[in-house]
Backbone:
């Protein structure tokens, strides 16, 4: 029987994205049954799935506890990609501290309570006149600001409740962002392709809603290797990952390492969808073999270890 694969989307954008449609088509050419379903819609849409792949679950950060509970429930009854251990790891930006401890170059960053006192203290510690402040759980440029030290109190007053509850990341501003952020895409640990996202003049955020442009990029081999090395610090090897950063004198400074629901820009490298599909079915085939031989799939094993 062909595997049934569900690509998880979100209620406010329920359709499979054009990029992910390339992936869905590549899976179907290999005999899989594929459809999309919203994570915050009817739970029954995922009941008969052999695998659920987190794709455009955008907006999850506005309902972080509901999303957390949903991923745990899905992982308990089917194969979730990326696996639940990586979802837990990626939900809060404290993972940047873990990357730094593992030797990965990241900006100077502090995760603190969303109060004027705590944020201002970080500015004072480093002597910063401005810094990037972003939610501890967030994506898509949601409430991400470049803030002057004199603007901290006003920023804190504007934050929504879910950001206040989770805290904020106060991060060193990297001027290299003016030349764009490099997004390196990996499937099953292997490099696939890269895209550069350039902000418009006067902007530092590279999300599409801020007017950034995107183009295919061929990064230096050393930068590709540094992105792959960052993946080695994860709890397990991801099926898909996107490493975002800037390059300073040949060194990749990792701004984000996304293994939850990153856009993978497969429209810039259509053959990448084939690689993603092959990697997905290889994972499913390998885990099916584990089950036949009496093994336990990783998600169930992880849950058992917590019990």
Residues:
């Amino acid at each position: 029987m062909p595997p049934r694969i569900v690509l998880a989307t979100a209620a406010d954008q329920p359709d499979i994205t054009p990029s992910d449609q390339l992936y869905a088509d590549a899976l179907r050419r290999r005999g899989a049954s594929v459809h999309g379903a919203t994570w915050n819609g009817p739970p029954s849409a995922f009941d008969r799935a052999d695998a659920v792949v987190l794709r455009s679950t955008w907006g999850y950060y506005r309902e972080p506890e509901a999303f957390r509970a949903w991923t745990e429930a899905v992982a308990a009854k089917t194969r979730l990609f990326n696996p639940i251990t990586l979802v837990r790891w990626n939900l809060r930006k404290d993972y940047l501290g873990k990357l730094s401890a593992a030797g990965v170059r990241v900006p100077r960053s502090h995760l603190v309570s969303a109060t004027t006192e705590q944020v201002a203290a970080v500015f004072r510690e480093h002597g910063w006149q401005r810094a990037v402040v972003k939610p501890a759980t967030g994506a898509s440029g949601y409430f991400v600001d470049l803030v002057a030290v004199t603007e901290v109190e006003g920023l804190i007053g504007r934050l929504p409740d879910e950001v206040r509850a989770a805290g904020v990341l106060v991060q060193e501003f990297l001027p290299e962002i003016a030349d764009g952020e490099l997004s390196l895409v990996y499937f099953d640990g292997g490099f696939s392709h890269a895209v550069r996202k350039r902000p418009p003049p006067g902007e530092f955020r590279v999300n599409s809603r801020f007017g950034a442009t995107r183009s295919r990029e061929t990064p230096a081999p050393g930068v590709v290797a540094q992105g792959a090395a960052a993946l080695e610090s994860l709890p397990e090897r991801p099926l898909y990952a996107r490493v975002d950063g800037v390059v300073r004198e040949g060194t990749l400074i990792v701004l984000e390492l996304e293994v939850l629901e990153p856009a993978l820009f497969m429209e810039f490298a259509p053959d990448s969808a084939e690689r993603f599909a092959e990697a997905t079915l290889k994972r499913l085939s390998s885990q099916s073999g584990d089950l036949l031989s009496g093994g336990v799939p990783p998600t169930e094993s992880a849950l058992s270890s917590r019990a």
Notes: The two ends are 33 Å apart (CA to CA).
